[in-house]
Write a structure and sequence with these properties.
The protein is built from 10 helices and 7 strands. The chain is an alpha/beta fold. The strands form 2 sheets. A 5-stranded mixed β-sheet has the order 4-3-5-7-6, with helices on both faces. A two-stranded antiparallel sheet has the order 1-2. Helix 1 packs across helix 2.
């Protein structure tokens, strides 16, 4: 490889690395104004990094990296725990039984699934659907932060305690996480039960509906 080619490769890697961790502006050069990195480019480069990621042990057993899906201008982002078997097989988030329920919740809110962004705390399936370990969550956190920083939704919905703890860095039980609005930077965060929990505990659906009403109050004041 020529010196120029390796310089281009190294510069590209450096820029993709800083984009992945939420840097949106490059310092002004001699010619003046700082340049803003286009959010679509930023998300695309983060996705490419995630697809090749081997930062934790989950990369050894995954079939797909389930990065997330939805429009870049989504006003609402749902964050789940991690892909399950169906998601790992299809490379898309929330496509199994919990996903069907999440889609119903979104529709009951008067929204279309295609209009919201859906992702997870970890992008690779934990074996046997166990909860992700703290070091796996930490290894993946830059991707989640970069997604949220690129999309900048009006509201984030954390689905379940794992997502809430990962986003908010608070080790509280669900009873203290539900019913109030947290902040991820300037973005409000509403915590509700994970749809998989609802499949096991259908009586909690009424509580989720309360949470979604509060969330809609923020989304469409
Ligand atoms: N559960 C999750 O937390 N995420 C998915 O994508 C599917 C099931």
């Amino acid at each position: 490889m020529t010196r120029l080619k390796s310089l281009i490769r190294d510069t590209r890697r450096t820029l993709e690395g800083i984009q992945a961790f939420g840097v949106t502006m490059l310092p002004a050069g001699e010619t003046g104004k700082a340049r803003r990195i286009d959010p679509a480019d930023r998300l695309d480069s983060v996705r490419r990094q995630a697809l090749a990621c081997e930062a934790c042990r989950l990369s050894k057993t995954r079939h797909s990296v389930v990065f997330g899906e939805g429009p870049l201008d989504a006003e609402l982002v749902f964050v789940g725990e991690g892909p399950g078997r169906d998601e790992d097989a299809q490379g898309r988030p929330f496509v199994g039984a919990a996903g069907t329920l999440l889609t119903k919740i979104i529709q009951a809110m008067g929204l279309r699934r295609e209009s919201v962004y859906i992702t997870n705390v970890v992008k690779c399936r934990p074996p046997m659907n166990r909860p992700p370990e703290p070091d796996e969550i930490a290894a993946c956190h830059g991707y989640l932060e970069a997604q949220l920083a690129a999309i900048r939704p009006k509201v984030i919905c954390a689905l379940g305690r794992t997502a809430a703890v990962a986003l908010l860095k608070v080790e509280s039980p669900m009873s203290q996480l539900r019913g109030r609005t947290f902040q991820w930077g300037e973005i409000p965060v509403v915590v509700t039960f994970h749809p998989a929990y609802l499949l096991r505990n259908p009586s909690a659906k009424a509580l989720v509906w309360q949470d979604m009403q509060r969330l809609l109050g923020i989304l469409k004041p």
